[in-house]
Amino acid sequence: QEHLDKQRELVKEHIRIEVELIERISEVIPSIENEKVRLLLNAILLDEKRHHKLLKKVLEILVRGETITEEDWWDVLWKNVPFHGAPGG
Predict the structure, then answer these.
(1) pLDDT in tens, the chain (89 residues)
(2) Does residue 84 lie within any of the structural domains?
(3) 5, 53, 59, 83: which has the fewest C-beta neighbours closer than 10 Å?
(4) Using H for helix, E for strand and C for coil, what is the string for 22-88?
(5) Contact (CB, 8 A) for 15 and 56
(6) Residues 88, 44: Cα–Cα separation, whole Å
(7) Residue 62: CB atoms within 10 Å
(8) Considering its fold, how many domains does the chain have in total?
(9) Which residues constitute the domain of residue 17?
(10) Model pTM?
């Protein structure tokens, strides 16, 4: 149980940090004039949002106190991915 509590706290802290990063990037993007930098920041922002969803799912599993199964990991990793291995599908 102690190990599970530590995992929960670690994931919660990571989620908190990610929320701050998502907010900061979202605030700064409109002021960026360099198109390449703006494109890079948008890509980072989208990646952080996907990662944030993944961590929230992991936290949900940890809060229930369940063991994360291989099936859970595949669901978390691939559920919101637009392409599953091959171009366009």
Answers:
(1) 677 788 889 999 999 999 999 999 999 999 999 999 999 999 999 999 999 998 998 888 887 766 667 777 677 777 766 665 555 55
(2) no
(3) 83
(4) HHHHHHHHHHCCCHHHHHHHHHHHHHHHHHHHHHHHHHHHHHCCCCCCHHHHHHHHHCCCCCCCCCC
(5) yes
(6) 21
(7) 19
(8) 1
(9) 2-78
(10) 0.66
